Amino acid sequence: MIDEETRYEAVRSRDARFDGEFFFAVETTGIYCRPSCPAVTPKRQNVRYYATAAAAQSSGFRACRRCRPDAVPGSAAWNVRADVVGRAMRMIGDGVVDREGVGGLAVRLGYSARQVQRQLTAEVGAGPVALARAQRAHTARVLLQTTGLSITEIAFAAGFASVRQFNDTIRAVYAATPSELRAAAPRADRPPAAAPPPPPGSRSGSPTGARTRPSPSSTSSPARPCRASRR
């Protein structure tokens, strides 16, 4: 039997290990939650504990829309943190952090910036800023090694604010300059080189070294000079 002190500490620390072990309800809001709910921790005197979601519902409490305590354990809806992290990763990949910052990402997810930072760090070992930086660097590397775009074009296409930021990030992540990364691309992935100009005197569009077939007029016998007409 879990004592009340342990239960409240689990709620205060949002300890997911206690999810399914008990549920808590907040009398001032009429909502019941899981211990790991990311909402603001309620005051101790306003909290009631239940062994099951059904018991909380029978007492007139509604399920929280953020932590979904009424979901089936093990389902996608139950595993809220994994779902939030998955959504965050997709948004970071789409450039939300680059355009709107961490605050914009947090608003889209329905959490505070601190909660997003904590959940991402716990699940993938890095926060949103570091993940966005890695995403930009990866995009830049792909463009460097598979396209003929200029360094400036790649820097802005990958989401960097400036060419200097682009250069600094590439050096920090890959320990190489953008030019070195491009040169290190596998031969099959390198962008096609521009065709060399034709040699002087060659006809445009003719293969180098190929002989051009003379025109019929050039092979005909020279015309005889006209004789002066007699008067």
UniProtKB/TrEMBL annotation:
<dbReference type="InterPro" id="IPR035451">
    <property type="entry name" value="Ada-like_dom_sf"/>
</dbReference>
<keyword id="KW-0489">Methyltransferase</keyword>
<keyword id="KW-0862">Zinc</keyword>
<dbReference type="GO" id="GO:0006307">
    <property type="term" value="P:DNA alkylation repair"/>
</dbReference>
<feature type="compositionally biased region" description="Low complexity">
    <location>
        <begin position="202"/>
        <end position="231"/>
    </location>
</feature>
<keyword id="KW-0238">DNA-binding</keyword>
<keyword id="KW-0010">Activator</keyword>
<keyword id="KW-0479">Metal-binding</keyword>
<dbReference type="InterPro" id="IPR050204">
    <property type="entry name" value="AraC_XylS_family_regulators"/>
</dbReference>
<dbReference type="InterPro" id="IPR018062">
    <property type="entry name" value="HTH_AraC-typ_CS"/>
</dbReference>
<dbReference type="InterPro" id="IPR009057">
    <property type="entry name" value="Homeodomain-like_sf"/>
</dbReference>
<feature type="region of interest" description="Disordered">
    <location>
        <begin position="182"/>
        <end position="231"/>
    </location>
</feature>
<dbReference type="InterPro" id="IPR018060">
    <property type="entry name" value="HTH_AraC"/>
</dbReference>
<dbReference type="GO" id="GO:0043565">
    <property type="term" value="F:sequence-specific DNA binding"/>
</dbReference>
<dbReference type="Pfam" id="PF02805">
    <property type="entry name" value="Ada_Zn_binding"/>
</dbReference>
<dbReference type="GO" id="GO:0008168">
    <property type="term" value="F:methyltransferase activity"/>
</dbReference>
<dbReference type="InterPro" id="IPR004026">
    <property type="entry name" value="Ada_DNA_repair_Zn-bd"/>
</dbReference>
<dbReference type="GO" id="GO:0032259">
    <property type="term" value="P:methylation"/>
</dbReference>
<dbReference type="Pfam" id="PF12833">
    <property type="entry name" value="HTH_18"/>
</dbReference>
<feature type="domain" description="HTH araC/xylS-type">
    <location>
        <begin position="86"/>
        <end position="184"/>
    </location>
</feature>
<dbReference type="GO" id="GO:0003700">
    <property type="term" value="F:DNA-binding transcription factor activity"/>
</dbReference>
<keyword id="KW-0234">DNA repair</keyword>
<keyword id="KW-0805">Transcription regulation</keyword>
<dbReference type="GO" id="GO:0008270">
    <property type="term" value="F:zinc ion binding"/>
</dbReference>
<protein>
    <recommendedName>
        <fullName>HTH araC/xylS-type domain-containing protein</fullName>
    </recommendedName>
</protein>
<keyword id="KW-0804">Transcription</keyword>
<keyword id="KW-0227">DNA damage</keyword>
<keyword id="KW-0808">Transferase</keyword>
